[in-house]
Design brief:
single chain, 113 residues, seven-stranded mixed β-sheet, four-stranded antiparallel β-sheet
Length: 113
């Protein structure tokens, strides 16, 4: 199983950005898909997850971020609105499948004030 993130970039505070995570080797409907992030000098933290029809968010992003999936494209997305400088981090996608947990390489999101 492989996952690959894309969509990161440099934006200004208040802007929006959508990250994509394309999976191969297993279906996103068979895995627990999630997003984590790691800021410079910080520990990796959980951001959002999707399981079936349910989505879950950390308190720091609830109301601003939306996670969704496109089964036909085997891809999950993280729509990020009202971005803040503290959202600056490398964002990682994870697929928790029956065969194990699979991480992507990450995509950098930088939010300038």
């Amino acid at each position: 199983v492989q996952v690959a993130e894309s969509g990161g970039g440099l934006v200004q505070a208040g802007d929006s950005l959508t990250l994509s995570c394309a999976a191969s080797g297993d279906s996103i409907t068979s895995c627990r898909m999630g997003w984590y992030r790691q800021g410079s000098g910080k520990e990796r933290e959980w951001v959002a997850g999707i399981s079936g029809a349910n989505t879950y968010y950390s308190e720091s992003v609830k109301g601003r971020f939306t996670m969704s999936g496109d089964n036909a494209k085997n891809t999950v997305y993280l729509q990020m609105n009202s971005l803040k400088p503290e959202d600056t981090a490398v964002y990682y996608c994870i697929a928790g499948c029956n065969t194990g947990d699979y991480w992507g390489q990450g995509t950098q999101v930088t939010v300038s004030s």
